[in-house]
């Protein structure tokens, strides 16, 4: 069958690229197959508004961040490519890997071979906070659903045909892996470690590597006090006044100006 002559090749490419990334978004959050929530979410079956906002945890799909925050990952990765902001994409706190898979899918959709995705996690769940830490009593520590092994995450990347040398996994606690993370420049940095220390460690080790024009995404700025506190302290200490844009009830981001 011949191509529709009313479509220019570039328009057709954009349409296919967009269709691929739409499908990725809906599959990665468990919307495509209306996947029920994990029992721990205390949600009956599949509820679309929960999946829109990332209020529940899908039983099998690779991400819990919901459609709005997944769309934000996609659109900020696309924006930095359009605007030629130098650097790799990185997430600290990946769980089953879904947001990083969207980052890798954007690179694939645009045929980009010279940027990488870095995925940092303990791959064993949230660390037990030391005595006296602001994270003592954090609600998700010890939650078994968060202990997703590196092998499981790699297998999920492979199922989506996204596992290759452009994806770098950093296994271990952020305090051990992030200071020496093998990355020179970042165009998108997504902090999804939820806790005060996990967020503070990400900012301290990586924010200076974020290129001007790059995006800093904080998954739970409007949800978790500890994460918000770590961000607010860092912004105040470094005189960062770039406005925080709210994504949904939970997430926010800002674009780093020069
Ligand atoms: C909310 S989940 C991430 C969700 C994921 N971004 C998604 O797309 O669904 C938080 C993750 O952060 C990890 N994490 C939190 N603090 C950490 C730390 N200090 N070191 C290593 N991993 C950490 C946990 O293991 C967990 O997988």
Write a concise synopsis of the structure shown.
The chain has 258 residues and is of the alpha/beta class. The chain contains 8 helices and 7 strands. The chain binds S-adenosylmethionine (SAM).
Give the arrangement of secondary structure elements.
Blueprint: H1 9-28, H2 48-53, H3 66-82, E1 88-92, H4 98-109, E2 117-121, H5 150-159, E3 167-171, H6 174-177, E4 186-191, H7 196-206, E5 210-218, H8 225-237, E6 245-246, E7 252-255
Parallel strand pairs: 1-2, 1-4, 2-3, 4-5
Antiparallel strand pairs: 5-7, 6-7
Helix pairs in contact: 1-3, 1-4, 3-4, 7-8
The structure holds S-adenosylmethionine.
S-adenosylmethionine is lined by residues 63-65, 91, 93-95, 98-99, 121-122, 125-127, 146, 173-174, 192-195, 198.
Structure description:
This protein is 36% helix and 14% strand. The protein is built from 8 helices and 7 strands, in the order H-H-H-E-H-E-H-E-H-E-H-E-H-E-E. The chain has a 7-stranded mixed beta sheet, sandwiched between helices. Helix 3 (66-82) runs parallel beside helix 4 and helix 7 (196-206) runs parallel beside helix 8. Bound molecules: S-adenosylmethionine. S-adenosylmethionine (SAM) binds at residues 63-65, 91, 93-95, 98-99, 121-122, 125-127, 146, 173-174, 192-195, 198.
Order of helices and strands: HHHEHEHEHEHEHEE
Describe the largest sheet. Answer: 7 strands, mixed
For the largest beta sheet, what order do the strands appear in spatially?
Answer: 3-2-1-4-5-7-6
Global morphology: globular
Number of strand segments: 7
Say which molecules are bound, naming each kind only once.
S-adenosylmethionine
- Content-based structural category: alpha/beta
First-last Cα distance: 50 Å
């Amino acid at each position: 069958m011949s191509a529709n002559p009313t479509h220019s090749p570039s328009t057709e490419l954009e349409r296919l690229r967009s269709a691929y990334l739409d499908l990725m978004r809906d599959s990665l959050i468990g919307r495509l197959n209306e996947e029920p929530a994990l029992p721990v979410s205390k949600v009956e079956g599949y509820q679309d508004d929960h999946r829109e906002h990332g209020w529940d945890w899908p039983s099998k799909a690779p991400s819990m961040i919901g459609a709005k925050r997944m769309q934000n990952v996609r659109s900020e990765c696309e924006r930095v490519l359009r605007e030629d902001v130098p650097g790799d994409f990185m997430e600290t706190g990946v769980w089953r890997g879904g947001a990083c898979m969207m980052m890798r899918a954007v690179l694939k959709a645009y045929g980009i071979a010279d940027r990488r995705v870095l995925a940092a996690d303990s791959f064993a769940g949230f660390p037990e906070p030391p005595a006296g830490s602001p994270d003592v009593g954090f609600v998700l520590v010890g939650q078994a659903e968060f202990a997703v092994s590196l092998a499981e995450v790699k297998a999920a990347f492979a199922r989506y045909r996204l596992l290759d040398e452009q994806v770098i996994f950093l296994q271990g606690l952020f305090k051990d892996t992030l200071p020496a993370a093998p990355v020179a420049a970042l165009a998108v940095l997504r902090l999804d470690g939820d806790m005060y220390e996990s967020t503070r460690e990400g900012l301290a080790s990586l924010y200076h590597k974020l290129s001007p024009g790059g995006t800093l995404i904080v998954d739970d700025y409007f949800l978790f006090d500890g994460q918000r506190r770590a961000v607010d302290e860092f912004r105040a200490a470094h005189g960062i006044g770039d406005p925080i844009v709210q994504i949904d009830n939970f997430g926010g981001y800002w674009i780093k100006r020069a």
